[in-house]
Specification:
Keywords: Pyridoxal phosphate
Strand content: 15-25%
InterPro entries: ACCD_DCysDesulf (IPR027278), TrpB-like_PALP (IPR001926), TrpB-like_PALP_sf (IPR036052)
Largest sheet: 6 strands, mixed
Number of helices: 11
Protein name: Pyridoxal-phosphate dependent enzyme
Domain Tryptophan synthase beta chain-like PALP: 19-278
Structural class: alpha/beta
Strand order of the largest sheet: 1-2-10-7-8-9
Cofactor: pyridoxal 5'-phosphate
Oligomer: single chain
Helix content: 25-40%
Radius of gyration: 19 Å
């Protein structure tokens, strides 16, 4: 685990507002950001239960799939990925995320989108046990009570100076951990990467406080959707700050926060902490899509 640090964003904002980003993306070269936090206690639990196989779920460019494959290899587990989309079966070599996971020992089971929706059904899990034997189940996106416990360690004592803590939201585990470890008078803002309001209920399962809001205006059309404006923003942010952002999660959140500053959403003198949840491995796959659409690609740090 590498040391995480808070980096000031040297952009002049109105009303004496300051931005700082917590570089969780630097925590580990391959198990970065919130994936490291979510897996920490789950892997300890898997060992305590004497399980030697991890099974989890994810899509074609899933940060979670890549992280479980590498963490599993590093800690001596076999890994199985149940992948959404049976059309991906013969496209592993074309997909940077799946190729990386396979190179790190993960075995795949490709299922239709219809079957994938059954991933939380007991009967579906039992069929997987019949096929693969005993395993430790890590939920899609890694979110469960142990994941939230890991994410509660993101904020430290030095973060008590911030009025707002902002993060991207996928399955709700990261924001739940931030809510639980936040201090009085801090507001936690989540920026969903997906359309829909179902996340409110997911977060309430784990969150022990009510000092949070979801800002649902910056999903750019839904999960995995991007446009020219977002690409140009991420590239200019990298150029200005030397901080790379992923287009699925953190890029949308940072865009949203800066847009809200311009709309006077935050009070004067607000100190805002952005949580960089990693996910940079997904840039390579996104760039393949962008090239197909004849859009500019996302730049990388030199």
């Amino acid at each position: 685990m590498n040391p995480v640090f808070n980096q000031s964003i040297n952009i002049q904002f109105p009303n004496a507002i300051s931005l700082t980003i917590k570089r969780e993306d630097l925590i580990h070269p391959f198990v970065s950001g919130n994936k490291f936090r979510k897996l920490k206690y789950n892997l300890l639990q898997a060992k305590a239960e004497n399980k030697n196989t991890l099974l989890t779920f994810g899509g074609a460019f899933s940060n979670h799939i890549a992280a479980v494959a590498y963490a599993g290899k590093e800690q001596g587990f076999n890994t199985i990925g149940i992948i959404r989309g049976d059309e991906l079966f013969d496209k592993i070599e074309e997909n940077p995320t799946l190729k990386f996971a396979q190179e790190n020992g993960m075995k795949f089971e490709f299922v239709s989108r219809e079957d994938y929706r059954l991933k939380n059904e007991t009967s579906f899990i039992e069929k997987l046990k019949d096929k693969f034997g005993d395993f430790y189940l890590v939920p899609e996106g890694g979110t469960n009570e142990l994941a939230v416990k890991g994410c509660e360690e993101i904020l430290t004592d030095e973060d008590s100076v911030f009025n707002y803590v902002c993060c991207a939201v996928g399955t709700g585990g990261t924001i739940s951990g931030l809510i639980n470890s936040s201090i009085q008078n801090q507001k936690i803002l989540g920026f969903p990467a997906l359309k829909g309001d179902f996340l409110q209920d997911e977060i309430r399962i784990f969150a022990k406080k009510d000092n949070w809001n979801l800002v649902s205006d910056y999903h750019f059309g839904g999960y995995g959707k991007v446009n020219l404006e977002l690409i140009e923003f991420i590239n200019s942010f990298l150029e200005e700050t030397k901080v790379p952002l992923d287009p699925i999660y953190t890029g949308k959140m940072v865009f949203g926060v800066i847009d809200l500053i311009g709309k006077n959403y935050f009070p004067d003198n607000s100190k805002i902490l952005l949580i960089h949840t990693g996910g940079l491995q997904g840039i390579e796959g996104m760039n393949l899509k962008l090239k197909q659409k004849k859009l500019p690609i996302l730049k990388k740090n030199d």
